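Recall from the previous chapter that SMILES is a line notation for molecules. Here it describes fe (ii) ion.
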Amino acid sequence: MKDANTLIEYGSTIDAKTMVVPPDVTELELEPGHPGLGDSEYVARRKSLFTLCRRHRLERLGPPTIDYTAEETRIWREVSPKLHELHDQHACSIYLKAKQDLAITETEIPQLRTISERLERETNIHLVPAEGALPYRTFYEYIAERGFPVTQFIRHGSHPEFTPEPDMIHDCLGHVPPLMNQDYAELLTLIGKAAATTQHGEQVLALKRFSWFSIEFGLIEERGETKVFGAGILSSTGEIPHALFSTDVTRRPFVTETVISTDYDPSQMQKDFFIAPSMPFLRRELETLVRQFGIPVL
Ligand SMILES: [Fe+2]
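With both inputs in hand, we obtain:
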């Protein structure tokens, strides 16, 4: 890939510099059409969690303990059993084992502080409180230091199965369990180190796509069956059957060169999926890519 000032992301032209110098968002912004926008109580709750989690992130205090409301617990209890049933059938074994080991239940929203301590003992990964979706490069600067940014707010109750942004259900039921696996933890850390080190926007974009089609929307081969390990799939009752069975999508073997040149649209149901043969395969592929890019992190 050659260096360029403009890149294509989500179908539009972007300035390569934005991939390297991320913007900072200092106040809560709910996007147009967000289901919580007209609900003043929800917005006030989100603002207070935004301030609390941002302070804990910037001051490196670890995830704050949250006193979840009855409404937030109700949403968790509505969504997590439905996901749990789908996970039992379709999630990869790494995920299922980890979810059990972390004792994530359908009844209580877990405290990320406790989970972070457990992860630290297992794979030396800790959780970093995030006030919302962080810019990609900021996100990977934490990951480079073996910290995984996680949100602690819950989606709006009017649409319990939908969220336009990553929330606690996406992060805790999608991203967190696989962090118990050493290969997954090392894969993620290397993406973080490489993305946080390179000064080339197009390399950051390539790493972002590698991550999107693995960490976020990856499928994996297991004993002749296709299973799910991507967090974006695992945290959505719609994406699990869509990713595995829809006839409107492509499911191709994970070939790095193809993956890093495939654009995607995060606001839609996904239409391209890649199936990795194993987690160690992904680690090796990533190491080869990072060497090829000449990023000095190995
Ligand atoms: Fe995610």
